[in-house]
UniProtKB/TrEMBL annotation:
Record InterPro entries: Zinc_finger_SWIM, Znf_SWIM, ZSWIM1-3_RNaseH-like
The UniProt record lists the keyword Zinc-finger: yes
Pfam families on file: ZSWIM1-3_RNaseH-like
Coiled coil spans: none
Protein name per the record: SWIM-type domain-containing protein
Organism, scientific name: Macrosiphum euphorbiae
Residues spanning the signal sequence: none
Keyword entries, A-Z: Metal-binding, Zinc, Zinc-finger
Superkingdom per UniProt: Eukaryota
Length: 372
């Protein structure tokens, strides 16, 4: 866990899952994303309660355990210090928010899209806010549009409409709870945190569903731990298998040009697929600020990979489109190979197996040709 966190500490997803253990305590899971888009579990927490002090203890322990690793990384790669941001995805739970904020002052919080919309549905109701069904539907429609705004300007335009059309109770609730933290839940603004385009907590939801498909509900603690570590081992074996696939598999389709081929050699397949889209699409949308190396768009800020707009700039200056400095080091194959545990282990022949030597004979047809 620690080695992976040291290499890929920029984003941490946090979530809790319930009904797994017979004494009815929640399991907290934290995970990160590696540079081939795979998830790695970094911490589990079993809490007897979810009081502020308990959460504080857990995140403090997490900080103690892992800050040494991230500090070591910062020390070695001090130039990347400015882009190292830990983003914590979580439910919209004010307790968690108020615990995490002081403990990780350098962090940006990003609230899961799914949970944001669910909270709006739970709170904005006729009964709770004393509004008519028509007012409720219209307000929720505007708030949903606010959720998907791509920029601050777009958000402000939509916010003006919201203020003129929403009933007083909805405006009060929204201004008090959501407006000032819009960078945490408006999609386009959350991308600026460098969240690798993760707008939801689906990575954790996927792991939690694996837990629930294997572990029966309300299992006793001893059996729960046995099952938990079996699942963890399976998930890691699957990930190691994918890592080997990155080395062994080669594309059968031809590359469009040399630049595309060079980027394929530079990046992991997962990231190359993102970059290939930027290479193949032309976009004339009005972006506020684009140079040959940086852009103000959500894709660039979220992924730290060159976007369509940067490539358009390069085309307009008649340059070739390849420059490895445009891509964050974390997405490169070299970095990936150095960080994967499976590739650090020495190759060991399986027990009982002996090396097989093959004596390759020249093809008969070649021999016949020589005789002729
Ligand atoms: Zn851009």
């Amino acid at each position: 866990m620690k080695e992976e966190f040291q290499a890929f500490s920029e984003m941490v997803c946090a979530d809790a899952t319930y009904k797994l253990i017979d004494i009815k305590i929640p399991l907290y899971v934290l995970l990160i994303e590696d540079d081939n888009g795979r998830s790695e579990i970094t911490a589990f927490g079993l809490f007897v309660n979810e009081q502020r002090e308990t959460l504080e203890w857990f995140f403090n322990k997490y900080k103690e355990c892992y800050l040494a690793c991230s500090m070591t990384r910062v020390f070695i790669t001090d130039k990347s210090l400015s882009i190292i941001i830990i983003i914590i995805f979580l439910y919209l739970d004010m307790k968690e928010r108020t615990v995490i904020k002081p403990l990780f002052p350098q962090c940006r919080l990003v609230i899961c899209l799914f949970h944001t919309l669910r909270t709006f549905n739970l709170v904005i109701t006729c009964e709770k806010l004393g509004i008519t069904p028509d007012e409720r539907d219209r307000s929720k429609g505007i708030i949903e549009k606010l959720r998907y705004c791509k920029s601050e300007r777009e958000y402000q335009d939509m916010y003006t409409i919201f203020l003129s059309e929403a009933p007083h109770a909805v405006k009060n609730y929204f201004i008090k709870n959501w407006h000032d933290i819009r960078e945490e839940w408006v999609t386009g603004l959350a991308f600026n945190s460098g969240n690798f385009l993760n707008a939801t907590n689906n990575r954790l939801e996927s792991f939690n569903s694996k837990l629930k498909s294997v572990i029966p509900i309300f299992l006793n603690l001893s059996d729960f731990f046995k099952q938990l570590f079996v699942i963890l081992k399976c998930v890691r074996s699957e990930r190691d298998n994918k890592t080997i696939g990155v080395i062994q598999k080669h594309p059968t389709k031809k590359f469009k040009n040399d630049d595309e081929y060079k980027y394929y050699k530079l990046l992991t397949p997962y990231e190359f697929n993102y970059l290939k889209q930027s290479l193949s699409i032309t976009d004339n949308s009005n972006v506020l600020c684009t140079t040959l190396t940086v852009c103000s768009c959500g894709f660039f800020n979220s992924m730290k990979l060159p976007c369509i707009h940067i490539f358009n700039k390069w085309i307009s200056t008649n340059n070739c489109l390849y420059d490895e400095k445009l891509c964050d080091k974390r997405w490169t194959r070299n970095y990936y190979y150095m960080s994967q545990t499976i590739l650090k282990e020495p190759l060991m022949p399986c027990e009982g197996e002996t090396p097989v030597f093959v004596d390759v004979q020249p093809k008969i047809s070649k021999i016949i040709n020589k005789i002729i």
